[in-house]
Design goal:
The structure is a single chain. By secondary structure, the protein is of the alpha+beta class. About 30% of the residues lie in helices and about 30% in strands. The strands form three sheets. The chain has a seven-stranded antiparallel sheet. A three-stranded antiparallel sheet has the order 2-3-4. It has a three-stranded mixed sheet with strand order 9-10-13. Helix 3 runs antiparallel to helix 4. The chain starts with a helix and ends with a strand.
Length: about 210
């Protein structure tokens, strides 16, 4: 029974991934460490197949090879669309905001067919970390503590944005998530040494 479920999972992941744009110029594979990601040092293990929040599939020599997240010891990987995924404590997180504060989602990142730079993120939860090697934690289940933590990360480098994030109103859901997301983007832009290149991730949270 487990074998049948595995085959069905792989089949639908590959079909679903194949419906969206592939970028043949993207070098896909694992990054063994964050430093490898920084240096674009890719461990090539085959052609990218598909992934979800618990596994990633690469194809090599005509065979689909599944890597369960619980068995992956690498920092993360890049898929064929150019998205970066981090592996942390046996789970896979898609990076939807790069910079000093990293934002993640555990869902499919749906590119617009006409403009691949436009990406819909329909997530049940949003996650953050202080840098690319920091502990990843969820925003929704403990919003007050999360906002306090994010503000403390911002404060030494941009007190103004830190205070705006901390003092804003977060009464309405899910707009409070997008508010925090936009403040993080503003902060990352303000402290970046050069203009950050990013996909236009449109965050939609439906828990």
């Amino acid at each position: 029974m487990k074998q049948i479920k595995l085959i069905v999972t792989i089949f639908f992941l590959l079909i679903f991934n194949g419906l969206f744009a592939q970028n043949e110029s993207v070098e896909v594979g694992f990054f063994e460490t964050y430093q490898d990601y920084q240096n674009n040092k890719v461990l090539n293990v085959g052609t990218f197949g598909a992934n979800d929040s618990n596994k990633v599939i690469f194809t090599k020599d005509g065979k689909n090879i599944m890597y369960p997240a619980t068995k992956i010891t690498y920092w993360g990987f890049r898929d064929s669309r150019g998205f970066i995924w981090r592996v942390f404590q046996g789970r896979i997180y898609g990076v939807i905001e790069h910079g000093n504060i990293v934002v993640y989602a555990r869902c499919f990142l749906k590119q617009d067919k006409k403009d691949p730079n436009e990406v819909v993120v329909d997530a049940e939860q949003v996650y953050m970390s202080n840098g690319y090697e920091g502990i990843i934690f969820g925003f929704i289940e403990n919003k007050k503590e999360a906002l306090k933590q994010i503000a403390s990360w911002m404060q030494p480098l941009n007190k103004e944005v830190s205070e705006k994030l901390a003092n804003d109103s977060y009464m309405l859901f899910p707009f409070n998530v997008n508010k925090a997301f936009n403040y993080i983007k503003e902060f990352n832009d303000s402290v970046a040494k050069e203009k950050l290149k990013r996909f236009n991730f449109k965050l939609k949270v439906t828990p």
